[in-house]
Amino acid sequence: xxxxxxxxxxxxxxxxxxxxxxxxxxxxxxxxxxxxxxxxxxxxxxxxxxxxxxxxxxxxxxxxxxxxxxxxxxxxxxxxxxxxxxxxxxxxxxxxxxxxxxxxxxxxxxxxxxxxxxxxxxxxxxxxxxxxxxxxxxxxxxxxxxxxxxxxxxxxxxxxxxxxxxxxxxxxxxxxxxxxxxxxxxxxxxxxxxxxxxxxxxxxxxxxxxxxxxxxxxxxxxxxxxxxxxxxxxxxxxxxxxxxxxxxxxxxxxxxxxxxxxxxxxxxxxxxxxxxxxxxxxxxxxxxxxxxxxxxxxxxxxxxxxxxxxxxxxxxxxxxxxxxxxxxxxxxxxxxxxxxxxxxxxxxxxxxxxxxxxxxxxxxxxxxxxxxxxxxxxxxxxxxxxxxxxxxxxxxxxxxxxxxxxxxxxxxxxxxxxxxxxxxxxxxxxxxxxxxxxxxxxxxxxxxxxxxxxxxxxxxxxxxxxxxxxxxxxxxxxxxxxxxxxxxxxxxxxxxxxxxxxxxxxxxxxxxxxxxxxxxxxxxxxxxxxxxxxxxxxxxxxxxxxxxxxxxxxxxxxxxxxxxxxxxxxxxxxxxxxxxxxxxxxxxxxxxxxxxxxxxxxxxxxxxxxxxxxxxxxxxxxxxxxxxxxxxxxxxxxxxxxxxxxxxxxxxxxxxxxxxxxxxxxxxxxxxxxxxxxxxxxxxxxxxxxxxxxxxxx
Length: 698
Description:
Elements: E1 5-11, H1 17-25, E2 29-33, E3 40-47, E4 53-58, H2 70-80, E5 90-96, H3 100-111, E6 117-122, H4 127-130, E7 132-134, H5 136-143, E8 146-149, H6 158-166, H7 184-193, H8 199-207, H9 217-221, H10 231-256, E9 257-259, H11 267-275, H12 280-321, H13 326-343, H14 346-362, H15 364-376, H16 386-391, H17 396-401, H18 409-418, H19 427-438, E10 443-444, E11 448-449, H20 450-476, H21 497-531, H22 536-539, H23 541-548, H24 554-567, H25 570-582, H26 589-597, H27 604-614, H28 623-628, H29 642-654, H30 659-669, H31 673-697
Parallel strand pairs: 1-4, 1-5, 5-6, 6-8
Antiparallel strand pairs: 2-3, 3-4, 7-9, 10-11
């Protein structure tokens, strides 16, 4: 089998690059991070012809090779390092047929690096509607490349693209624009000093302040005969380069592109006027969110009940089939209930990712960012901060990483510090189980239920707290900052089903696998701590309980013995030790253990309680029923009542319980100072708010 062809997929944001990547690779994808940095790396395998494959690397979206963010630095570093394992055999630049002028700037820069380059013109299905006519042969001649006219929506042109990738060795490497053209004297001297180097590559090494891993910057640009210009002079030359490139692009498009303005429709402008309206825009956005949260409850209730009952059945069946012993107890009382505590929420998490993907794919999410910029500026942030805050509803880790697009260090730091307040998918399992236990399953006007309204309130509470914290930090942190807000408004489009499904599958899988590893480890530890005790109270539990309660039925005695053993186990003593700390919040020692263990990750809370309540319990009971049956040891009545439930919801709304997020914050800020401040301040706030809520409501 031939060696895979290494393909780098590049392009501006919102050109449909992800759609092309998904069509080429399908589900043969892997998501990880670049070595040594936390920028996401997406790669996949594409079958071309018999025995020939392509390794597709989907690089972060970038507008040009003049880097202004960490994501763009990744692109430049790769394209300038031939020794890099991912250095491409061929670069595929994806452009949007409606924004060719802007997209071609990046194409000409990559072409000038003398890398075989293919131009993909995407969204070809829009050409007729927009009155666009393209002379592809002429465009190929002028740009000295091969072009694939593609419609990712209709899956047209992908075979042509695959054929071009396979025959990449025939692609010309001639630059579009000679570097000598925009600074002749400077580049003549540079060429004379370094006769064996690519001029444009040298230019990027000189002007870009990036980490060239295997490119020694000094080796290229430090000689007695050559002196690097000042920063201001280099900026002036960069501007001159950009002007020259756009002059070249304009001349090409004058010959090859025709737009009939009369044939184009103005639906986008009409929709924007409504969806970004200063009043109705917010009203529509909040309405969409309410519908989403209601759907999350209504649509997922049936699969959730089935999963809950399936895990109870699996635990019971396993115990009846396998011979009794500590190992079987570990499986049936520790591992199965612990994993069941997270798997049960897959339907709701999948629906959340489904709706977020649809909003992003349709182009509406960019309107939300634009809309929220008006609010952000009042609190010392810009609209660019909304992207991390909105993506924080999925997970705080990529949200913190998304702050790299914010140029101002002060705004970036504030955004990093407040992102964990937004309600991530790890909080969702806690919210859902507690809301189901303490909020009535009733509806207002037969449409919206109390439970979905409570969930939406918690999302708004998290966002509002993030904004308030940003306002406070803006006034406390004494840092100078200047910022500007630029966002591209992509065209509205019907979401591609394949893109949405791949996004939902990948993100749900990442959540379940990531949480599953932690929960599995903690479930085993908790089961061991709950199944063994330090003294005779645990080992003699049966004799002690039988002597104290002689008039109980056999079943009641079993429950008493299990409860007594749990209280006198290692975990019981640990829980009793911290109970005075959590009792004022309305919690017992079992909830206290759940809170402590969930500092590893919030979603562990439900799995922890599922494991603790399963030790010695009836195996055919579901997790929800066991939690509902818990009795408050001090006040009597249900442990999970309205007061304790609201207290617990508020605690998790504010608490910083995610070690992975703290690690990323440390990495992004290059200091332990900020994650420690986050952990301490958010924990104090969570405890204080939960305490006040319980004391008022009890």
